[in-house]
Amino acid sequence: MRPLPLPAHALGHVLLIMRQPERARRIADQLTSTTGCQVTLAPSLRVAALLIRGQHYSAMLCDQAYADDLAADALGDDAPPVVLVSETAGGQLQLSPWPAAATEARTLFATLLSVFDRHQHAA
Q: pTM of this prediction?
């Protein structure tokens, strides 16, 4: 997964992954009105994985709670880039590309799996 170049007006069709339905709808409405992008809501990573298989999205937007889950590469390498979305105290949206630490976590996880596989074959 690669970071999305901002600004947000280039988003196109995005997938918003968020557990809280009211918050997700509020953010989706704000994204649509400010960027003109089309927003599809997914309440869980499982739903997001199903939606990604059937539709092209320019980005996945999620809050920090899902970003931590996505660091484990739950949706696979074909998933669109990830953007963290948060709200300021005044209700303004803040978008930021996926932090580099998540990519490093994926690389570390892949390395550990590789070492584990080699150990299994040697035994």
A: 0.68
